[in-house]
Amino acid sequence: MQYDVNKIREDFPILARSVYGKPLVYLDNGATTQKPRCVVESITDEYYSVNANVHRGVHFLSQQATNLHEASRETVRRFINARSISEIVFTRGTTESINLVASSFADSQMKEGDEVIVSVMEHHSNIVSWQLQAARKGIVLKVIPMNDRGELLLDEYKKLFSEKTKLVSVAHVSNVLGTINPVKDMIAFAHSQGVPVLVDGAQSIPHMKVDVQDLDADFYVFSGHKVYGPTGIGVLYGKEAWLDKLPPYQGGGEMIKNVSFEKTTFNELPFKFEAGTPDYIGSTALAKALDYVSAIGMDNIFAYEHGLTQYAMNRLKEIPGMRILGEAEQKGGVISFLVGDIHHFDMGTLLDRLGIAVRTGHHCAEPLMHRLGIEGTVRASLGLYNTKEEIDALVEGVLRVSRMFA
Ligand code: 7TS
């Protein structure tokens, strides 16, 4: 299939707008992605014509809403190739998915002194969730180090395992360095030690084909809004055997079978983990987003973004004083950089005035900033609709800001 980026851009009305009288160059896809028309329309259409609470009504609309919601679960299952819809739990996003596993796993599977392995490049949500459990249960965090290119040191990873290791929790793709971690190999090793693995897929799911069975991930989590879907909905995939073992995270409606003051029994999977009214509007819209990217083809998206990343890396390196943070062999479209001694915040603010949206700061990865010996970076993160012209605009913009500081 020919990758027609201009045709794709037409599906995203926001990309046609200008800011400060300049055409918008949106390079903050790591934070959130823009939405194609089909996703936005799904939300309004469902509110206008179907809206009713799911799973509990005998009436027509409730059944139609329930059918849409459950069909969306099947779409998610197919998208990541899970075995069963029982393994697809809807959450608010990556953060809630990780907190759910951290809480339920620590409660049921860990005792004082037990260890969780994370990496130095984790997002705060995959650090602090475990620290909360560490404080509560006395569990210990072990950290996989990396080299200066931003690649995890796999020999060191293997050395971190002990008989107290209960779980590995790692990002598939770093939201700062763009490193694509070799999670399949890391999972295979962990399994050889009898340890399950959670993969934080927040930054991989929008950019590459993910097959949870092929990876053999025990848990895989992601956010809808980073894969062209709506905010407020995300996914926890868990192998059925694990989800069966874990206790509920929250109590309320939907997650119970029978309730009395003496004894309550819990609903079957995945509803055991879905207390309260779910975001059924969001699930339908998320399914639309997944159908949208599937129609383009995840392999096509990966190839296109890979080419664009190479182009951006080469062009940015032409800039005097350019320092790129993250030069892993396997790298996705996340490019963090600093130029000379220009503060990342100044660079970001001035690029913004040129219509270029990048993110600046520590990107919710302060321990990684400590490892790099910096306070923050400027980060351009690519999406399926970005173009070479936009990379050129970024390079021109960075050069212009550099000249102002020279
Ligand atoms: N994990 C990773 C690797 C992330 O990049 C993010 C969000 C999260 C978890 C949390 O996702 P949420 O949807 O639950 O908030 N990362 C970013 C970012 O890089 N800039 O803004 C949010």
Provide the fold topology.
Layout: H1 5-10, E1 18-19, E2 22-23, E3 25-26, H2 37-49, H3 60-80, E4 88-91, H4 94-109, E5 115-119, H5 125-137, E6 140-144, H6 154-159, E7 165-171, H7 183-192, E8 197-200, H8 212-215, E9 219-223, E10 234-238, H9 240-245, E11 256-259, E12 264-266, H10 280-296, H11 298-317, E13 322-325, E14 334-339, H12 344-353, E15 356-357, E16 359-361, H13 366-372, E17 377-381, H14 388-405
Parallel strand pairs: 3-15, 5-6, 5-7, 7-8, 8-9
Antiparallel strand pairs: 1-2, 4-10, 9-10, 11-12, 13-14, 14-17, 16-17
Descriptive tags:
binds ligand 7TS, alpha/beta, Aspartate Aminotransferase, domain 1, single chain, 2 domains, 406 residues, Aspartate Aminotransferase, domain 2
Q: How would you summarize what this structure contains?
A:
The protein is α/β, with parallel strands linked by helices and 406 residues long. It has helices at residues 5-10, 37-49, 60-80, 94-109, 125-137, 154-159, 183-192, 212-215, 240-245, 280-296, 298-317, 344-353, 366-372, 388-405; strands at residues 18-19, 22-23, 25-26, 88-91, 115-119, 140-144, 165-171, 197-200, 219-223, 234-238, 256-259, 264-266, 322-325, 334-339, 356-357, 359-361, 377-381. The chain folds into 2 domains: 5-30 and 297-405, Alpha-Beta Complex (Aspartate Aminotransferase, domain 1), CATH 3.90.1150; 41-294, Aspartate Aminotransferase, domain 2.
Low-pLDDT stretches: none
N- to C-terminal separation? 46 Å
Q: What's the total number of strands? A: 17
Percent helix range: 40-55%
The CATH topology of the largest domain comes to: Aspartate Aminotransferase, domain 2
* Shape category: globular
Q: Note the main sheet.
A: 7 strands, mixed
CATH hierarchy: architecture of the largest domain: 3-Layer(aba) Sandwich
The small-molecule ligands in this entry are:
ligand 7TS
Structure annotation, total helices: 14
| Beta fraction | 15-25%
The number of distinct structural domains comes to 2
Structural class: alpha/beta
By CATH reckoning, the class of the largest domain would read: Alpha Beta
Rg over CA atoms: 22 Å
Please tell me the overall pLDDT. 97
The largest beta-sheet arranges its strands as: 4-10-9-8-7-5-6
Please identify which CATH superfamily of the largest domain we are dealing with. Answer: Type I PLP-dependent aspartate aminotransferase-like (Major domain)
